[in-house]
Amino acid sequence: MSIRPSLRSALSTLTALLMLLSAAAVQAAPQAAPDAQATPQQQKVNAQDTQAAALLNQLADGSYHNKAKTIEQIADSSDERARQWLEAFAANKLARLEDSGEFVIIIKNRGRHWTIANALTGEPMGKRSRRDIDVIRVNNQLRNQLQDILSVIDLKVSDPERRLAAARDLRGKVTAEMTSQLRKVYVDEDHAEVKSALEEALAIYQLDTQQDPEAIEILDGSLSSEARAALNRAAQSDQPELAAAAKKALSGIQDKLKLNRAAETLYFGLSLGSVLVLAAIGLAITFGVMGVINMAHGELMMLGAYTTWGMQQLLPDSPGLALVLSIPAGFLVAALVGIGIERSVIRHLQGRPLETLLATFGISLILQQLVRTVISPLNRTVITPEWMSGSIMINEALSLTLNRLYIMGFAALVFIGLMMIMRKTRLGLEVRAVTQNRAMARAMGIRATRVDIMTFGLGSGVAGLAGVALSQITNVGPNLGQNYIIDSFMVVVFGGVGNLWGTLVAGLSLGTLNQLLEPWAGAVLAKIVVLVFIILFIQKRPRGLFPQKGRAAEG
Amino acid sequence: MSIKKHLASGLSALALTTACITLPSLALADEDPIKVGILHSLSGTMAISESTLKDEMLMLIQEQNEKGGLLGRQLEPVVVDPASDWPLFAEKARQLLAQDKVDVIFGNWTSVSRKSVLPVVEELNGLLFYPVQYEGEESSENVFYTGAAPNQQAIPAVDYLMNQVGVKRWVLAGTDYVYPRTTNKILKAYLKDHGVADSDIMVNYTPFGHANWQSIVSDIKRFGSAGKKTAVVSTINGDANVPFYRELANQGIEASDIPVVAFSVGEQELSGIDTAPLVGHLAAWNYFMSVDNDANYDFIDQWIDYTGDENAVTNDPMEAHYIGFNMWMEAVRKAGTTDVDAVKDAIIGVSVPNLTGGYATMMPNHHITKPVLIGEIQDNGQFSVVWKTPSTVAGDAWSDYLPGSKDLISDWRQPLHCGNYNVVEHTCGGSEAK
């Protein structure tokens, strides 16, 4: 099991680091050398700089085709700074100053003034207007080429994760010049996964160039797309034995893939389901338990998401911590707003569901427009922390995205927490009592008003929690709530009003159903089919999957 | 003062009359500003995109007023809010033209809102400048399309992928409404013309605001692992892009494996996402904020000063409004009046500088000439231009790749004066195709 590293951001951090290091090295060298020897050494440095500048100029002025050649020249040059330049180049951060023609590495490239440093000496050069900086253009093909060059270098680093990524990256890209070097690396490699990836890379090369039937044996059972592509090419070869062997290997792989695909669909379904459960569970309390139709539920989620954004604005350097802190903060903000809505509007409309529906719908519009006016109609950026991005690779055909995995865990925690509150605490007991028989509960000394406030606050707070989670997978904007309100009601009604277990089962099953349908029906039709299914189901069982039983249900 | 009396008293008197008539009308002009209607949603779903354009128009008008206005008259913006509600667009357009008596309207974003406004501007003979890239298949006498037609965005982008990147397999992914459906129809016909097999094209539509991209992205990944270079051509509408790109990044699809070229993702959409995992994915536009050009830098400075937000971004539809506003002013100067019919005739052939270092010319079909740029997403939410058409491309109202429209041309000059003239049957239909 390996976590796929976010290559791009790693690249840029590395660039900055390397730059600092080389700056220190370059500046330290002349100081350390005695004056007498400074001249020849200086000359050598100068000669190297002239050569480097020439190469970089070639890189800056050449067409994309010529740039590819220059990249190889730079990689082959013995200059220690070559790697740093190439990485900066790949990250679109190598530039030439318009006036002086100096080469610089861009350290910060946001806003109208960019922070730069000299590419040759590493000296920081402060901020310059973007007008004066000509970034040396790079495109996907060049970036690919650079990645291959860096991969070969990366095969020798000590970190097995990076070696593995590099080896996987080389599959299908092996060239004749590389093979002898790769074989040597392969023999020396002791990490099993890296070794097998290298073996595969070499096998793909052999199958493609020499039609080697032994290579098929190695590729047999591999789930990587490059291996499949190579086998596909071999299956169309004009040597019948080779083609037959390749076909046999392919059909074996197909069976494995089917299994993986089923597992993947299940995962997708459960993860969509857990998002639905999160969105609906707050509603299950306000609507299901209290019987209040709160159309502003979606906007409470939106507030939770905006709280996450706000926290990240407060703590710009640690988005992960901000996200964790926004869990309680989002709960509080949404709960307070929810209580405000309950006290100011819903309380006066008790027992009049139609008016409540209209009034809360109005509140939802007010909240949306409020966010538009006060914050901005534009979506806000919520950063996904490093530990939540990427995916866990189970095997080459099945990887589980981390953010969804976290949200599934979060949904489970929220559900268990709510269950505990309703079952084990005094509040839960009082809530259940008030829902079953308000008058009797009051006669027993329960302060129904206080219970109303607490329940609505709880339901709204959970909506805020859903918002915090949603900020990691969707847009944080004024319309966030609208997209989820219908789904939430659907889940609650389908699951059975007033039943938390029903909400859980309904959310997960609707999510899975949707994901099962999507591949063959398309996203639009899948949504329609699910909706029709629910309508038909409600016709048959108006009280949902898990109807409440007993006198309370009739009341 | 009676004109009849002066006519009778000879030539000298006639000259005097002219002076007398001109003088009061000049005096009138000073107190009577030129009204510019701004029809962009300030609330509702589309506020995210459209409210920026309203601010931009206000900035341009303010700047022009500081320079002394137009024809010696001040410009007065009239802002209405159609609230992302399509029928309300028609109502508000009617209000602008009939009640406020505006001389020109800058507005709309979605095609459906333009279709809603179209009969109103035609009925009341207004002028509408529409700044967003669209699906084409339309040319109205009263509408000026300053955004890209499909041949100024989609087709060149596909050409780039086909010829420069070597793409052999295509995913056409879009939101389920008129612009993606028409564009994909054109693209599919175009790809087939270039020998792409049906099995190498995958078409996928998703609802507005789609947030759960897991299985679709996984399908794309599978489709792309067949050994041929694959690319995604995305007409996914603004909002749904954020979760789409997030899912791409999380499932590890990098631009070097399967590049995504988008037609609706600009700087503004990217300002809502962390773009580090998206580096290298593409977009095709006629303008990028990163274009290295002094006119563009000046415009950006002006915009940042106006909004007071150091992180404010500019985008393609903003450039379209910049061009449209300047073209309209140039036409008004040329005609010497804001009269709609005079401006309509004067504007054809007008050239104004664009922000990418060239000129935009209004063509007889009411579309303009534009360069087509392909940009790659960078980690700072900007695009880096990797390819550009050698010269500007004139917008084509009627696609050459659709059976219903390839025989149609549009030319609003006399003597043809027709939005969809059929060159085979020699007939002229209405403003839309049959």
From TrEMBL, chain B:
Superkingdom to which the source organism belongs: Bacteria
Gene3D superfamilies cross-referenced by the UniProt entry: 3.40.50.2300
One Pfam short name: Peripla_BP_5
Keyword Transcription regulation recorded: no
Database matches in CDD domains: PBP1_FmdD-like
Signal peptide: 1-29
Record's keyword annotation contains Transport: no
Keywords: Signal
SUPFAM superfamilies, per the entry: Periplasmic binding protein-like I (SSF53822)
Organism: Terasakiispira papahanaumokuakeensis
Lineage, opening ranks: Bacteria, Pseudomonadati, Pseudomonadota, Gammaproteobacteria, Oceanospirillales
Name of the featured protein: Urea ABC transporter substrate-binding protein
NCBIfam families: urea_ABC_UrtA
